[in-house]
Amino acid sequence: MKVKAIIPFKKEGAKTRLGAFLTEKEREEFAICMLKDVLVAVSGSEIEEARIISTCSKLNFELDEELKLTVREDERGLNEVLNEVIREEKEPVLIIMADIPLATSESINELVRREEDVVIAPGRKGGTNALFLRRPYEFFVSYYGISYLKHVEMAKRRNLSYVVYDSFFISVDIDEVDDLIELVVHGKGFSAEYLRAIGVCLRVDKEAKVGR
Amino acid sequence: MKVKAIIPFKKEGAKTRLGAFLTEKEREEFAICMLKDVLVAVSGSEIEEARIISTCSKLNFELDEELKLTVREDERGLNEVLNEVIREEKEPVLIIMADIPLATSESINELVRREEDVVIAPGRKGGTNALFLRRPYEFFVSYYGISYLKHVEMAKRRNLSYVVYDSFFISVDIDEVDDLIELVVHGKGFSAEYLRAIGVCLRVDKEAKVGR
């Protein structure tokens, strides 16, 4: 089965909630590192083709991985552009966020090997961090808010079978300073290395924190 | 293979960080509901025997599940009592926290069916929410702080093979008010029902929150 990964990406003005901790330039570099980690996980899986949908006109990075990679530049909102893209997809797609750098090739494989029409891997706080659609043209995505519940609802309304895929590493999206703890504890890729290089480290008092 | 579940439990003074949101009585009732959810998940798995290690002298609740259940009362610290208990265990044990009410029987089965000597299911912020020990008498647990890294280190030092078990639902321990979001979104058991009964609901503005 041929599956295409679709990865929405925002570089400019990315990750503002990390603003107290990382400069704007660092946040942009860090966002690229996270994207690369996700691409490495995808390229180590059975997926052979990935399309980045980027709000950014110049996306320069190098990746030593075997992956057919295309970049589509589109400044529109996430739902608008994704729904236009998946409407025209005849083959299964995996929509996977660019800020889940702990995602593994194993979990991506398990996810796309499920039999159901729709596979939802939740993020914290009701998010959807990976969404596998066997028949993308029958689905409408709805990110923002409690997207997890909206995607479950959409699957039901369209009479599509669905399952929740249970992965901690996919659930960890890096939005806030405390989220960096997960990356420092568990990360082995570009983004964890980036944090180490700029001096981010763990501080353990009563509970874990990150410091610089 | 016979596996025993060990579940540390604290009722009195439990979950103080939920104090701004739940009264002391509610926190105690809620802690019992979470324990029951964990016990239901365990009893639906291949594990046939569970031992609760409770700091509380009176632990009264009913459970309509087929599970050989014993309660040991012990007021000592978590590490002290657990290390004494596992030193005498000849059969494999699964140490599983009482505040992970989203844990599923499927994930527990997958966890205890791994081949490795040690299986670690992380919690957020470097925690260890489930820990499978094939030869418990060879291991020392060390909770608090970044216990995940300490348990990895312990496995290496003792020359025990280990693997990280990747589960979102096991990773969700309920410590803070924002953690309740996960339970309201994903929960189907006693503790989610309890929250609904006392009027806890989701509020979605820019991001998800819980309100009453």
Layout of helices and strands, plus pairs?
The structure is a homodimer.
Chain A: E1 4-9, H1 24-43, E2 49-54, E3 68-73, H2 78-87, E4 93-96, H3 105-112, E5 118-122, E6 128-133, H4 147-157, E7 162-164, H5 168-171, H6 180-186, H7 190-197, E8 201-204, E9 208-211
Parallel strand pairs in A: 1-2, 1-4, 2-3, 5-7
Antiparallel strand pairs in A: 4-6, 5-6, 8-9
Helix pairs in contact in A: 1-7
Tell me about this structure.
Two copies of one chain form a homodimer. Chain A has 212 residues and is α/β, with parallel strands linked by helices. Helix content of chain A is 32%, strand content 21%. The model of chain A has no long low-confidence stretch (mean pLDDT 94). At the A-B interface, helix 5 and helix 6 of A face helix 5 and helix 6 of B.
Q: Pairing-aware structural class of the strands and helices of chain A?
A: alpha/beta
* Helix amount of chain A: 25-40%
Do you know the CATH topology of chain A?
Answer: Spore Coat Polysaccharide Biosynthesis Protein SpsA, Chain A
Number of strands of chain A: 9
Radius of gyration of chain A: 17 Å
Low-confidence stretches of chain A: none
Question: Short summary of the structure?
Answer:
In chain A, 32% of the residues lie in helices and 21% in strands. Chain A has 212 residues and is of the alpha/beta class. Chain A is globular and about 50 Å long.
Features:
two-stranded antiparallel ribbon, 9 strands, alpha/beta, globular, about 210 residues, seven-stranded mixed sheet, homodimer
